[in-house]
Structures are given as C-alpha cells and as structure tokens.
Predict the 3D structure of the following.
Amino acid sequence: MSTVSSAPEAEEDNAAWTEAELRQVRADLTAEVERLSEEIAVIEAELSGVVEDPIGADGRDEADVGGKLAEREHEVNLLEGARAGLAQNMSALERLDAGTYGTCESCGEPIGKLRLQAFQRATSCVSCKRSQERS
C-alpha cells in the first residue's frame, strides 16, 4: 500500500542541502540572472524607441495615441517585473554566498526544501508567507 504525502509534510521538508544541490541552485539562479538581464536590455531598448516617438506630436487620432500609451505602460510593467525578478535572484545568490539560503527571513527557521525547489527565490517559510498574505 502506497502513501501519499500531504502538503504539511512537504512544507516541513527541512533536509540539509547537499553541495551538488546548492551548485545546481546557484547555476539555476545565475542562468535566470543572465536571462533577466538580457530581457531588461531588450525592454529598455524598446522603451527608448517608444519614448523617442512623441505621443500625439504628429497629429495622430486619439485611438493611435491611446494605443501608444497602452504600449508604453505594458513595456514599463514588463520592465518593472523583470527588474524585481532580477533583484530577487541576486538576493538569493547573496544568501547562498552568506550561507543563509534556505532560512526564513521572518522567523529564522528553515524554509522547506520542496518550497525552495519550486521557488528558489523564496525568503519565507510557508507559515510566515501565509501570515504575511493574511495581513
């Protein structure tokens, strides 16, 4: 008879990280930093092109102006998201370097290994994250 692991057990997986696992986490985070850096460069280049094209300066109708504004807003939102992701990945790499990766920043307890495998940038254990979301 097989047993199915429950969510609370998955949350409590605090097994020690092996050196190989930490190397893989570092490689994954580094690759994501590189990807996000490239994405940011592309978005910034696209945004500079959009900014150089003044809205409404050439007598375009309101629909064209609205479309251009929506395009700018979308690009800015993408840029903000990429920058936030980059900062989170850089912070995770810093925690790896400091030896604090996998420790909850709120309570100091270990963050479940399965949680970190699913979301390598996590800074809170499941309990603290739930508390943060409720408040």
